[in-house]
Amino acid sequence: MHEYSIVQALLEQVDHHARAQGASRVRRLHVRIGELSGVEVPLLSLAYATFREPTLCADAELLVKPVPARWRCPGCDRAMRRGNVLRCPDCARPARLAEGDEIVLDRIELEVDRCVTPAAAEIPRSCRWRSIRTSWLGTIGARGTTARTFASTA
User: Fold this and answer.
1) Binning pLDDT at 50, 70 and 90, where does residue 49 land?
2) 39 φ/ψ angles, rounded to the nearest 5 degrees
3) CA gap 69, 102 in Å, rounded
4) Residue 57 phi/psi, 5° resolution?
5) Strand spans (E) along 1-122
6) Which residues contact 42 (CB under 8 A, 6 or more apart)?
């Protein structure tokens, strides 16, 4: 049941980014889950529903996009077909997993009362929604966290 610790880390990251943007609430979370990540999506959804209540995500929808496993040759970057031997037919190097093991918080949709970014001068004062894209890999920690902000009016 590591889904509970993943949701706890997810909610901490969302809270951090949401508060940094002056959010009054979170509307929607977009998460990509690789098929080889070891995460069971129904358990993740249950854990999210259980732990989101006392947070800015209390009413936020969790949208999970499954990511299929894909392998590539590290030498010549050739894609390996699913079900085939995981060795490059061109250079005989063993294939590496290119996608499918990730747990990524891809986007946060926020409701904000005021714009707080340095680029706020470009955004009308009626700014109510903000979308944040961020990469996150839960408790596994192999990818780190980056954040870029995109703002739009609603």
Assistant:
1) very high
2) -95, 130
3) 10
4) -95, 15
5) 23-34, 61-67, 70-72, 79-80, 96-99, 103-112
6) none
Cα 138 to Cα 134: distance, rounded to the nearest angstrom = 12
**DSSP class of residue 133?**
E
Domains annotated on the chain, with CATH: 3-69+99-152 (3.30.2320.50)
- Global pTM? 0.71
- What local confidence, expressed as pLDDT, does residue 115 receive? 57
Query: CA-CA distance, 151 to 109, in Å (whole number)?
Result: 10
Could you tell me the pLDDT band of residue 14, with boundaries at 50, 70 and 90? very high
Burial level of 34, CB count in 10 A (0-12/13-18/19+)? buried
Give the H or E element holding residue 125: none
Alpha-carbon span 80 to 84, nearest angstrom: 7
**pLDDT on residue 116:** 54
Average pLDDT in the chain: 79
